[in-house]
Design brief:
This protein is of the alpha/beta class and 442 residues long. Helices cover 25% and strands 18% of the residues. It has eleven helices and 15 strands. Strands 1-2-3-4-5-6-7 form a seven-stranded parallel β-sheet. A hairpin with a 2-residue loop joins β9 and β10. The chain is elongated, with a radius of gyration of 24 Å. The mean pLDDT is 95.
């Protein structure tokens, strides 16, 4: 079972300082590590969860290593937490194969401490990991976020001991590592529809942070599926998705270049997101008042593969030239124009609208601003003259006439003409990037 997968995992080549340094070079402004996932294994020296990365598997305090590396690199440190779902999502550990030579042989979700005598996990209780000391749900695999809300996919309610353990684990994590950022892989807050422990955790997170900063709050809490009121006290996170509009409050996309966890097949088949795809998403998100949390999954030994390094290098190269159009900017009056802008897919539930609209092309432009300057980020490298309609006289969005235009990363003079129907830009003789051209408009 999963406990044995943990035992094989060693992270023996993991170098957090090197990795965070790579991410910072690529433009990272904050760094997130995973505290635990749906598998219920804690990635730190956990006082309340015996199944943790110090006692089993790598035998390392991974959160401590990530926290030190982030702070040495001057990045705010965040932790993502996903273990609230173990109660129901690990019910699969009670099942058995439906066919083949192991048909009908139960998995190890019902094992107890007594079964470990003489085993590598002697002294540990599998129930601390699988959390299956409760009746099964009324139907298999109840994975909806409404699982305890009496919906069409009901699940057995978590007991008080499970809730208290989750609370204690999380508060222990906050107290030990003092993260500036926390993300819960839950609608709103963990267990929001059956308990107030999520609210209590949020209060402890904010209050403990303020106590470190003389009453100033320097912490950010992220949650999914937030309504307008909730977005005033937490940051709305959209999983694998994008807002179709400029949002009044800051928000975040969380997505990945591949799968959420390392999948060798994606590497073998060269199917990661490219640096171009990442930068185009980033420009779209920032133009709408958002930020991008990008996951780069590590191999079991703690290293990146060659294709992942190429993606990071590509992002780094573009950011080295164009970061002023991203960092310290604000959304402009509108976020952009072009086919993908006009066909943006709506957000439904927790997100997951990534790739459902039209693909980005060089006809798509996204805008940011800094002071009196507007940045036009062209999502490609056009070879023909391009007219940006939004910047024409007829649109009446520019309060003053354009005095100068600079192509970032280029020494060439920009050949441009503004008319009623738009701002026409001639393509440069030498493009500073094939990913996206950025024009700084004064």
């Amino acid at each position: 079972g999963f406990k044995d997968v943990i035992n094989e995992w060693k992270a023996d080549k993991w170098d957090p300082h090197h990795l965070v340094g790579l991410y910072k070079r690529a433009g990272a402004q904050y760094f997130f590590a995973m505290g635990n996932h749906h598998d219920n294994l804690d990635m730190w020296d956990s006082q309340y969860q015996p199944w943790n990365s110090v006692s089993v598997g790598p035998k390392k305090d991974l959160i401590a290593g990530w926290a030190k590396a982030a702070r040495e690199n001057g990045l705010p440190f965040g932790i993502s937490l996903h273990a609230s779902h173990a109660w129901t999502w690990l019910e699969t550990s009670r099942w058995s194969d439906a066919e083949g030579s192991f048909k009908g042989i139960k998995y190890d979700g019902a094992l107890t401490r007594a079964d470990g005598k003489g085993q590598w996990w002697d002294g540990l209780d599998p129930q601390d990991l699988y959390a299956q000391n409760h009746p099964a749900s009324s139907r298999p695999d109840p994975k909806t976020y409404s699982q305890w809300a009496g919906g069409t996919d009901p699940a057995h309610m978590p007991d008080q001991a499970y809730l208290e353990k989750f609370y204690n684990r999380t508060v222990d994590l906050i107290n030990k590592y003092r993260p500036e950022l926390m993300y819960f892989d839950d609608d709103i807050l963990p267990f929001w529809n059956v308990s107030d422990i999520g609210l209590k955790i949020a209060a402890h997170f904010y209050n403990s942070n303020m106590s470190l900063h003389n009453g100033r709050l320097e912490a950010v809490l992220f949650g999914k599926s937030l309504n307008e009121q909730q977005r005033k006290c937490m940051v709305w996170d959209i999983e694998r998705g994008l807002s179709p509009r400029i949002e009044p409050f800051p928000w975040q996309t969380d997505t990945c270049i591949g799968g959420w966890h390392y999948n060798r097949k994606l590497f073998d088949e060269h199917r990661y997101k490219t640096a171009t795809e990442v930068i185009h998403m980033l420009a779209d998100i920032v133009s709408k008042n958002g930020s991008l949390m990008l996951n780069i999954p590590l191999r079991g030994d703690g290293t990146l593969d060659e294709d992942e390094l190429k993606v990071i290098e590509g992002i780094t190269g573009w950011m080295d030239i164009n970061k002023e159009a991203i960092f310290g900017t604000r959304p402009w009056k509108i976020s952009g124009e072009g086919p993908a802008f006009e066909a943006a897919a709506p957000v439904e539930g927790a997100g997951f609208n990534e790739g459902k609209g039209k693909p980005y092309t060089a006809q798509d432009v996204r805008f940011t601003q800094k002071g009196a300057d507007v940045y036009a980020i062209v999502l490609g490298a056009p070879t023909e003259p391009q007219t940006i309609k939004t910047l024409g006289f007829a649109a009446k969005l520019l309060e003053k006439r354009i005095s100068a235009i600079q192509l970032l990363g280029s020494e060439e003079s920009v050949n441009w003409k503004q008319a009623d129907d738009g701002l026409t830009l001639q393509p440069p003789l030498r493009k500073p990037s094939e990913i996206a051209l950025v024009y700084k408009i004064s």
